[in-house]
Amino acid sequence: MLWPIQPSFQDKESFYSYICRASELNQQDLKAIYKLLGVRYRPNNPNPVYVDEMDEVRSTNLIVDNCVKDWLLFERGGGNADFCTFGKRFPRYLLSNKVKVCPFCLRDHNLINSEWHFTHITTCVDHQCLLLDSCPRCNGLFSWSEMLLSQCPECHIQWSEICKYTENFKKVEKLDVHKLIYYQINKNNKLELEQYPIEVLRLSFVDLVHVLSFFSWLLDRYDDCWNSKSIEKLNIFEIYEGIQHAGNVLLTWPLNFDISSVKMKVVKLFEKTRRIKFFQSWVDSVPFDIENLFPELNTQYRVERTSVLLEKLNKKKIDGKLELSDITFIATLNYLY
């Protein structure tokens, strides 16, 4: 055991949150616990382990609990390397420097969700509210601290009291996936800003392609979670579980697809995060209008695909078996054009 009282693991809890709870229960200094784990304590960075510390963590005999060791090594966002693999490792540039929390989650569970560390996560799916980065009473910015689990680190107001300030906040409307893609692809159209939900204004589709590829861990745990639902019933949060297939597509682009017009854009975008080799198509490709295939997207753009894939997509749509991965693929291509 690492310490006399070892708290149980909670679903979706961040490693930082777990260590804070362990520190509070055992009345130990947070810095001392990090030192015990063989990791430097960084008050402005909740993600614990850097590349140069991995060997030390793997070899230390102090961490006798393999679950804790694995969690430390594979925490989402851990490490300072600018690369990703489809698994549990993610690039650091997606991590938010701000502390964002859901007051209702902290009031009810006293733990920090690891998803809140990501820049593009701005809402709580359980309570349909925006995450807060400052106290609604004192306006002080939240900071990483053991106190954050129970109160505002600045004015020390309890989360139960903070929730009273936010109960009248407007609920965040959930968006269907096809609506989100519609908004993303039509950003260049002259729609009024108030027509865009707040989540859409804070994201770009390329961001989604990046972010969602780093959530493949969800599919490890909930393999058929989103596949079992119809596309129309998936909401904006569940798109994080499905669009990761678009990331896989970008890494395994079909050899017979002509991407010469988007090659420079894509290579420039991904050259620092992934090593992708693109192949010029020597196979005749068939142009088609996305709007005809997906009228709900209402887009002016056109892409080129092979006749085989076009027939496959058309058949899927006719049979009602079109998958989210197909739509995200098409939407990604539209954005790149």
TrEMBL record:
<dbReference type="InterPro" id="IPR009492">
    <property type="entry name" value="TniQ"/>
</dbReference>
<feature type="domain" description="TniQ">
    <location>
        <begin position="4"/>
        <end position="131"/>
    </location>
</feature>
<protein>
    <submittedName>
        <fullName>TniQ protein</fullName>
    </submittedName>
</protein>
<dbReference type="Pfam" id="PF06527">
    <property type="entry name" value="TniQ"/>
</dbReference>
